[in-house]
Amino acid sequence: MLFSVLTVGGISLTSYMIVTDSMAAVARDRPVRVASINARVLDMQVRELERDLGQGESLSAEDERVAMAEFLSQAGTIFGERAPAEPQIAVLDAEFRSLWQSSDVAVVSGLDDKRRETLRLGEQTASEFPRGSFFSGLVGPAVLSIHVAHAPIVLPGGGQGLLEVSYYPFREEAVIDSIRPPMLALAVFAMLAMTMMMQTSMNWVLRLVDDLRSAADSVDAGRLDVRLPVGGDHEIGELARSINRLIDRLRQRAEAQSRFVADASHELATPVAGIRGYTSILRAWGAEDPEVRAEAIAAIDRESRRMARLCGNLLSLVRSDQVAHVKSVHFDANAVAREALAAAATHHHEKGLDVVGPEEGQLFVTSDPDRVEDVLSVLLDNACKYTPDGGRVELSTRREQESVVFEISDTGVGIPPEDLDNVFERFYRSDASRNEATGGFGLGLAIAKTTVDVLHGSIEVRSTVDEGSVFTVRIPRG
Ligand SMILES: Nc1ncnc2c1ncn2[C@@H]1O[C@H](COP(=O)(O)OP(=O)(O)OP(=O)(O)O)[C@@H](O)[C@H]1O
Ligand SMILES: [Mg+2]
Question: Considering the entire predicted model, what is its pTM?
Answer without folding.
Answer: 0.58
